[in-house]
Write a structure and sequence with these properties.
Helix content is 18%, strand content 31%. The radius of gyration is 33 Å and the shape is elongated. Strand 3 (52-58) and strand 4 form a beta hairpin. Helix 1 (3-20) packs antiparallel against helix 4 (283-304). The chain has five helices and 15 strands. It has a domain at 24-225 and 258-271: Jelly Rolls.
């Protein structure tokens, strides 16, 4: 097979790969995960209007200026079995390739591990098109079941107990696909119809204003490529531009004084560089592209008759010193064999 044909074959293979393995983009699904825009994008909720508290606070953040604070006013006269506290929730897009989801966040808890009265946890809700509704709880502090908070895995609930450092920022990162397959098996055929994340603190007593701070929440996934729908343009009168009066930004709600914070705990890198991610995923296409370009250049040089040796090398007669053509066996001046 000639070089010219090989170039065309490799070009075809590269195009075939792009057709069989379309380009997917890794996308951040969470809006305002650093809370620098207040509670924009989040829905706050409380289990008890009197004791539950959810707001943003300044000065106790992992990065930037703001973080989320969930806390509860202690009330010992209330039975411990009554669920109190609250958190925030966000509904995310579902145009995701399978369950290839990386879920991460930073938390600074006032309570860690197995505790008698406290739950500090993140929650992912997966609504599947086959009708199942699954919940993954990620606890950094947990209370016993006597307090009305189930800590047992069921057919639709999976509990994960995670280590965290008291009064210091702890980094949590989970591979949702791996967590799903550890319980429910292969996820290749799973199709999402709903996806929500929540962060909350519940059921607390015998503590003085216990709290948990949250920051840099992220849900990164490979999203399906979307084809824009065609837009039909109907001729009409030239629109006029309305005068818009900008609305001044509203200051965040006042917060209670934040507790003294210990030095932060260094965690892993929050994000993988976009370039490294592209190279890692599309290295085969990049290699094929380089090979195709190199082979095309070689084929062009061969077809055009250009040779590096012909353009750079000169020969001279060993007997009389006359200049010879490349490949000559006898001198054209003196006839000596070379």
């Amino acid at each position: 097979m000639s070089w010219y044909c090989r170039v065309h074959v490799l070009s075809f293979l590269m195009i075939l790969e792009l057709m069989l393995f379309p380009v997917y983009a890794r996308t951040e699904l969470v809006v305002n995960g650093s809370f620098e825009s207040g509670l924009n994008g989040w829905r706050p909720y409380v289990y008890d209007e009197v004791y539950g508290r959810v707001n943003i606070t300044q000065g106790t953040s992992r990065s930037g200026s703001w973080s989320l604070r969930t806390y509860i006013n202690p009330a010992r006269e209330i039975p411990y079995t009554q669920k109190r506290g609250g958190g925030v929730e966000q509904t995310l897009p579902t145009n995701i390739k399978g369950l290839d989801i990386v879920f991460s966040f930073w938390v600074m808890p006032a309570v860690v591990g197995d505790h008698s009265y406290t739950n500090i946890r993140a929650l992912i809700r997966l609504e599947l098109k086959d009708g199942r509704s699954l919940r993954f709880f990620y606890h950094v502090a947990w209370a016993p079941t006597a307090l009305g908070e189930s800590l047992y895995n069921t057919s639709d609930t999976t509990i994960f107990f995670l280590p965290a450092t008291l009064h210091q920022w702890s980094y949590i990162q989970r591979d949702v696909k791996r967590d799903f397959e550890s319980i429910y098996g292969n996820s290749d055929a799973v199709v999402l119809s709903g996806l929500r994340v929540s962060f909350e603190m519940t059921t607390v007593s015998h503590l003085t204003t216990p709290d948990a701070f949250w920051d840099d929440i992220s849900v990164v996934a490979e999203t399906q490529p979307t084809t824009p729908s065609p837009t039909t343009v109907t001729p009409g009168p030239t629109p006029t531009t309305p005068t818009v009066t900008p609305t001044p930004p509203q200051p965040p709600s006042p917060t209670l004084p934040s507790p003294t914070v210990s030095p932060q705990v260094a965690g892993p890198t929050d994000r993988t560089g976009a370039w490294d991610s592209l190279v890692e995923r599309y290295w085969m296409s990049i290699v094929l592209g380089v090979v195709v370009v190199a082979l095309a250049l070689v084929a062009w040089r061969r077809r055009s008759g250009i040779s590096p040796r012909m353009t750079t090398v000169k020969r001279y007669c060993l007997s009389c010193g006359a200049e010879l053509a490349v490949g000559s066996e006898y001198c054209t001046r003196c006839g000596a064999k070379q």
